[in-house]
Structures are given as structure tokens and as C-alpha cells.
Amino acid sequence: MRKAGIGKSGITSQNEPAAGAPLSMTNLSVNLNKVALLRNARPLTIPSVVKMGELSIAAGAHGLTVHPRPDERHIRRTDVYDLAELLKQHPSIEYNIEGNPLESPFMDIIREVKPDQVTLVPDDPTQNTSDHGWNVAKDADKLKPIVDELNALGCRVSLFMDPDVEQIKRVPELGCDGAASPLVNRIELYTEPYATAYREGKGEVSFAMFIAAAECAQSFGLGVYGGHVLILDNLPLFKTIPNLLEVSIGHALTADALEMGYAGAVKAYLQALKS
């Protein structure tokens, strides 16, 4: 079982950088879902999710992310456990598990593994992929006891959110930095609107919305990171969000790995975050 609460800095993973403290670099968490999806296309064990996790760590990734769904279309429950075993050998690498806490068996998995971070995502089991954030006003009563339990388990709590300032303003209703339990520590911004606008040559316009969302979250003591549709082309602009803690990237990284090799793709994304 993964020992929860130890982040890359060696301090408890629930703690965020001090307000106003500049980040030396935005962290990269490699999402392994697409590796599992490819493996599941045949009754084989290749490509190995654990092997790609090992390659990611060796290439310099700061964390690993998985999103186990009830139908196990990509990440299987056994993958979650296997990666937890791998990360026992790498205590500085963060383990982020995403999923809908209202769908079984997600919370059972979390109780067993106790990852560093749990990202709560309001996806329906029939969705092809996550495509919207939480409606906090509507879902607060359901989320509060889950957030409270995750805090008791020692997991950092993140909510998958649209870049909607009005919704983000409601997150403190669940508790945030400096508030009484339950406590939400971070939000992950759903980046599809930015990626679409960027492809259409309107990235700067959309980016302003993400800046506003990040500033709103940070004003409440929430850490901010991004995920879902970030690629090498649009990452250099997105990473300029002040104090962006992390990006979680899987689909594009896996696609780029077909040309660059898996370790090469991880290094390319790390370089994009550094430059």
C-alpha cells in the first residue's frame, strides 16, 4: 500500500507552496490511461503500464496519473495496485488517481491505495472521456462527506473544474486552505476549451479565461494545475499561468511517443515546461 502524504518536496503532500512563492518549474504527471487502452486491445500484457511508468520516472516525470473507470476500458484495478507497488520504490514520485467518487468501486480503491492525490471527476460511466467539471452548487452535499473522508485518509484533494469563475468561487463551500474540514487543496482545470481555441488561432482569447480562473482559485488558497488536452504546441502558453503547479498529460504524450519513443516524449514535455 502506498504511503500517502509524502510529496516530491518531502513535506506532506497536502501542503501547497507558500502564497506568492515562485515555482522553479511546473511538474509533469504522466497519465498512463492510453497505454492501458492499447494493451486492452489484445489479450496480451503489452504494452506494460508498469513498464511505461518506470520509463516515465527514469525520464524525469514528477508523478503518475491513472483514471480507473468502472468498466476498466483502460486502467484496470490491478494496474492501480501494481503502480502503487512500483511507487514504493520511488517515494518522491506522486501518485494521482482520478475518478468519479459516486461510482463504485472508486472509493474502495482509494481506501486501499491511499494515493498522494485524488482528483474527483464528475464523469458518467458512459462518457468516452471527461468533458466537464463539477457543478459545486448542485453537488456540494454529495462531495462534502467524500472530501472529508479523503482528508482523513491523508490524501490531497483536487476537483476537476471548468474555467468558470462562478463555480470556482463555490469551492470554498467544501473547505479550502485555512478552513475547517472538509478540505479541498487543488483544482484541475479542464483544458479542452483552451485547446480548441488554440487550434483555431484564438488561444490568447481563451487563455485569458484560464488566467482568471486560476487567479480566482489561488485567491482562496487553492493550488491549480491543468490537464486533459494539453499538447507540445499549446503547452508553452498554458504553462505561463502564474504558479501553475502541475500538468497531467497522457493522450498527446502517448501519441508523440509513437515518433519519439516513450522516454523521449516524456523528456520533450519536460523541456516544454522548462523553456
Offer a quick outline of the entry.
The chain is α/β, with parallel strands linked by helices.
Q: Could you say what the CATH topology is called?
A: TIM Barrel
Domain module tally: 1
Rough shape?
globular
Percent of residues in beta strands? Answer: 5-15%
Main sheet strand line-up: 1-2-3-4-5-6-7-8
Description of the molecule:
The chain has 275 residues and is an alpha/beta fold. It has a single domain, classed as Aldolase class I (TIM Barrel), CATH 3.20.20. It has an eight-stranded parallel beta barrel with strand order 1-2-3-4-5-6-7-8, surrounded by six helices. The longest helix is centred in the middle third of the chain and has 18 residues. The chain is globular. It starts with 26 loop residues before the first strand and ends with a helix. The N terminus is likely disordered.
Topology readout:
Blueprint lengths: L26 E5 L1 H7 L9 H11 L3 E4 L10 H12 L5 E6 L6 H8 L3 E4 L15 H18 L2 E6 L3 H4 L17 E5 L1 H8 L3 H17 L3 E5 L7 H4 L5 E6 L1 H10 L1 H13 L1
Parallel strand pairs: 1-2, 1-8, 2-3, 3-4, 4-5, 5-6, 6-7, 7-8
Helix pairs in contact: 2-3, 2-11, 7-8, 10-11
